[in-house]
Specification:
This protein is α+β, with helices and mostly antiparallel strands. Helices cover 39% and strands 37% of the residues.
């Protein structure tokens, strides 16, 4: 009789140990999923910030001379880059519309339609300021991460 009780106690201990192990495994899996989701979100925000800054910087750097301006479009900042092609001057308007960075290319003097621009990437806001030394750009991602850069004016090379 004593041997049977010892056997059932061993079995109960083994089952309890298995349950504790299973609960610990579930806890670690849930915790790991939360850490992964948080990391992925931060990586996406960082990617959006860097990509938008690099995109805008390269657009300005490839613009001939200082043919860029900052204008207002529907109450928001728009970066306007001008370039002459085949005797016609075209303007590339870069702006934020409905939390999307957009670009619209039009002939100089035409009216820009915010809804007609090509969507580039998610972005909450764009701000640009022209100074004596160049242009300062500040962006705010949809995850509220802010970043800015300064692009110096070209010097005579």
């Amino acid at each position: 009789m004593f041997g049977k009780k010892k056997h059932s106690t061993n079995m109960m201990f083994t089952v309890m140990l298995l349950c504790i192990f299973a609960l610990a495994a579930i806890f670690v899996a849930v915790l790991g999923a939360k850490v992964y989701a948080n990391s992925a979100e931060k990586l996406q925000a960082n990617f959006d910030t860097r990509t938008s800054i690099v995109y805008l910087s390269e657009k300005i750097r490839t613009c001939p001379g200082d043919a860029y301006d900052v204008r207002e479009l529907n109450g928001n900042t728009a970066l306007v880059l001008s370039q002459e092609v085949g005797g016609t001057t075209y303007e590339s308007w870069i702006y934020v519309h409905k939390e999307e960075l957009c670009e619209a290319v039009i002939a100089a003097g035409d009216t820009v339609s915010t809804a007609g621009g090509q969507q580039i990437m998610p972005l909450k806001s764009l701000d640009a300021e022209i100074t004596d030394g160049g242009i300062r750009i500040t962006v705010l991602t949809t995850e509220d991460q802010e970043s800015n850069t300064f692009i110096s004016r070209r010097t005579g090379l």
